[in-house]
Structures
1.
Amino acid sequence: MINRKKIIAGNWKMNKTQAEARVVVGDIIREIGRFDSAEIVVCPPFTALSAVSELLGSVTNIRLGAQNMHEAASGAYTGEISAAMLRELYVRYVILGHSERRQYFHEDNATVNRKTKAALAAELRPIVCVGETLPERESDQWKTVLETQLVESLAGFGDKELADIILAYEPVWAIGTGKTASPAQAEEAHQWIRKVLATKFSAAASERIRIQYGGSVKAENAKELLSKPDIDGALVGGASLDARGFAGIIKNACLE
Ligand code: PEP
């Protein structure tokens, strides 16, 4: 069986000024800056990327991610940010297709696909989010929804591209609600995702890809979720805003 290194990413969303970001990243570095049994990523808002990048420098095991990007290289796209602009700040990861982007900014699978292509071309590692809504879960459509999101968001890619992508399964009903999918529900969804990928790509690629779970993960529930065989990490919103909370998730779930 492949040993997939756990990856924990903090999505700060539209929170923290530069000054606040410096404080929390300083605390995160003190708590887990030397921790290397998991890949750790922080995703501040665009305006704090530069400050956080400076603090992370090359001395820590904590990497920088962005929460979104535009698919074009440059041009008349007021308010948008390109992959090259992120690379210049030493950003290594980018969250794409987060349900809040899909819901409030009308991003669909085709948009996510174009952005993922552009991110890969710029050597950014995309964290591609998929997940069903509550009505889709309750009407037992979640498998079809996930399959469509995966097939369309990853259209045109092969095993080679998949190797550089991280997936995040984030049931929309569990994001920011305090309601977590049970470890069994999350594991079932992750297994389904691997099954879909094995059909569309190869069994080896499906085995290799890391799939994070996201949705109200906190220090108290992280260990149980991440001990499931197909859950390879967490995408954390609310609990990543506080250094001790974020470090607690990593310490509880990733220490051998
Ligand atoms: C997220 O923003 O991706 C997320 C999972 O948020 P929360 O942890 O707050 O549910």
2.
Amino acid sequence: MAKVADKYFETHPWKIIERGFNPSYSRVSEAIFALSNESLGLRGYFDEDEEGLDSLRGSYINGVYEYEDLQNSYKGIINRRHFMIPTVDWLKTKIKVDGKRLNLAINKFENFTRILDMEAGTLERSFVWRTKTGKALKITFLRFLDMLHPERAYQRLTLEALNFSGEIELETGLSFHLEHEMKEENFWNPVRRSTGDNSCAIQCRTTYSGQEVFAAAQVSVSVPVTTQGMEHGRLVKLGVSLPVDQGKPIEIDKSVVVLFDETERDELWLSGQKLFEKAQAVSLGEALAAQRKYWKEHWSTSDIQIMSADDSVRECVEQEQQGIRFCIFQMAQTYRGGHEKHNIGAKGLTGEAYNGHAFWDTEACCLPFYLFTNPIAAKSLLMFRYNTLGQAKKRSRMLDCEGACYPVATLNGEEACNLWQHASLQPQPSTAVAYGIWHYVHLTGDVDFLWEYGAEMLIEISRYLKSRANQNPKTKKYGYYGVMGPDEFKLMVNNNAYTNYMGMRSLQYAVEALAMMQREKPARYEDLTIKTELTPEEIAVWQEYADNMYIPRTEEGLIEQNDGFFELPHTDINAIHMSEFPLYSNWSYDRIYRTDMIKQPDVLMLLYLYNSTFSLEEKRVNYEYYEPRTIHESSLSPSIHSVLACELSKMDEAVKFFGYATRLDLDNYNRNTREGLHTTSIAMAWINIVYGFGGLRSDGDVLAFAPRMPERWGEVKFSLTYKERLIGVSIQKDKTKFSLRYGDPLDLQIYGNPYVLNKKGIEVATSQ
Ligand code: BGC
């Protein structure tokens, strides 16, 4: 954990501020300043041309991808892979003064600031351009992606001539010229274009996946001008000559619609035009006011506030405050439950790394954040899995199994991971989906979801889990052989405890849920058994597998991560030098696999997910054994350790692991933020505070809390949306208060004791 902060941005409670431009940090800034509204995603790249700067012009659309075919004839290994591609660059702007183009790579400029405002969901960049002819032009770009209308995006350009009056030439347009950086290829082919009075539109189609995207822009200028439309290949644009008077700023507002859906070519153009007409009725100013309102409402139920204990730690705590708000902002803008065909890529929509793919991270790491801040979004994420059940069933056949095997990495439900040792050996996406269904139903009480969608997924997952399991010929116990658990440093192991345990719990849950459905919804149950050809005998077999699943445990409660783990040679992880990280680049793959070094929590993940099932002593024994062997090569890892360390009263360790959770990307701890944000790890920062220091446990019969505060905090406050209620929690050094901001009274458990939370609230002494 010897990772160090690379501090670059100013600390502010609600803003991320870059003052002065550092070209060598440009890609990190682009990731940090990324905007999204779930449908559209945009790195913080410059609006104007930036030839010569190190930049990744990433403008993405959730669900838009391209295919590549892979040569391979081994069954079970994929031979077609999809990956997210850059789409329309709707910011495209060219500014010319005295015939020379603005480009910060070569121009002289001063007073550069870039500000992400998390209360407004906007990004603003301003600077003064000093031209070779001695002119000073103040340029401000503002952009935002409409949170309420996922197809709408806005850019405002403000120009203020500081020491001259004259003409400025401007071109602004929509361009499908962006190349996929890793493939060095542009995948777009023009289908249709148009330009009109102050507006332009274009539709393009991808080469292999055949997806089409429509984009249109309207430009309005605060002084009278005439625009000239231009069309060429993958580009449409409007040119205008702007008369500027010294000291009088002019504004150029660009309202954009970007639409992707599965409809046919002409239909998409028509529906795009209709949405564009509607968007044109709203001014940028009105859209901005609505955007602020949206974020205000969001923060009123989802904020986490951290106050410092005293002045000596104020700076550090202010950084944590900014950090956690950044994490919450990213989670809320990346996904809000707008579309059941969207998921959350490991890097959200902030870069090409990980290809935009969603992993088991969605259910294992992100779901709790949405369950307690936006349950509609949580349901929508599970609906993605329901809508892609067909692909998961196909995948299972490819692996010679039955039922549904959910993909390790995906954008559209198909498996897109071409590393066979992951794609073929990791059942955790499927068990994570089963866990997600259980957690969602458990926390929302939405049993209709279970009847309509969840039960069918559970049936197919159980079929997969049953067919993927084997029986030990001697002990007659069931288990998973030739698997890779969450610890990806153990390849092809037998009886990975996490996999066996999760398999067991998934099967058990399926059996219980179906029995409940048969009792409570017999007609629907009947339909489902016909649809899925389910028999009572099949359910009985699942029960038998669950009852006889092998979970290796010593008398002290130490769970062996997999068969033979305790006999593995030891690696002293503290002896590995910083320069050897990331290990996957510096150690050969097979060298990584040979010892007891662990990539990320495996047994400990289990203790975190099914927390209330394990005793404190079991947690202690396992934590003390596995923590010193864990290298945290995955950024999902430290927060899980922090949560368990809090529970075990190991506060120094809890704080140490928390250290970089909230500022993982803001301080570029892993030195790879330039590739994109660690979006799914960002969710772990929220978990670290709420489940760690708040001590929340959501897997028991009632919500349980056991708050513990880091020394440097004076108070931490957060809210939880739970079954039509809003619960407020305020933890201070000496006391913790729970309030019911709305909704009916609720049973809670606090430090193991039962309470009823009503309008009067609850106050308890905070455990030291
Ligand atoms: C982790 C996986 C995770 C993936 C995407 C890997 O490094 O080991 O558990 O699903 O990253 O975040």
